[in-house]
Amino acid sequence: METVLAILHVVGAVFIVGPLAILPMTGLRAVRAGHAGQVSTLAKSTAIMTYLSVLVIVFGFGLMGVADPKYNLSIATSWIWISLVAWAIAVVLTLVLVVPSLKRAAAGLADGGQADRSSYPRIAMGSGISSLLLLLIVVLMVWKP
Q1: Three-state DSSP class for 67?
Q2: pTM
Q3: 15-40 as b/e, with b when 16 or more CB fall inside 10 Å?
Q4: Residues 16, 22, 25, 29: what is their CA dihedral angle, to the nearest 10 degrees?
């Protein structure tokens, strides 16, 4: 069971969290190009991947539950709780800042105008910080300090 959960956890990280880091960056390119439909689709996709990232957490908790007791893993293990806090901050940033800014940019572009000037830096800043937090999680998961 541990192997199955480890595979699900890693596959989820690659195919759910990976796009979560990349989609907003693609959205920036679509905003610059003035593609309202693409920006709107990327906003929806980013939101979906953000919600799906909960699965990676669930599989991670499953792994903690079946791990050999000699590893002494728990929610109090420093690299685990730091990863959870970083993930929570990344999720909040994405859902509260990045996705609404992508939607606002798409709406502005769809009206035949330009994207709201405040949207682009918000998308860039929010997704950049989010990506750095996700990178921190990967480092912690590999390093396990």
Answers
A1: coil
A2: 0.93
A3: ebbebbbebbebbbebbeeebbebbb
A4: -100
> Do 8 and 63 touch, CB atoms closer than 8 A?
no
pLDDT at 64 over 90: yes
Q: What is the pLDDT of residues 11-57, one digit of tens each?
A: 999 999 999 999 999 999 999 998 999 999 999 999 999 999 999 99
How is the chain split into domains, by residue range?
Answer: 2-143
Residue carrying the six token digits 């693409």: 38
Q: C-alpha distances in angstroms, 101 versus 5, 31, 35, 45, 75?
A: 35, 11, 15, 14, 33
Amino acid at the residue 100: P
What count of other Cβ atoms lies within 10 Å of the Cβ of residue 91? Answer: 18
Report the SS3 class of residue 55. Answer: helix
The closest alpha carbon to 106, from 54, 45, 18, belongs to 45
Indicate the helix (H) or strand (E) that contains 142. Answer: helix 119-143
Contact 127, 25 (CB under 8 A): yes
Cα dihedral sign for 78, 50, 89, 135? positive
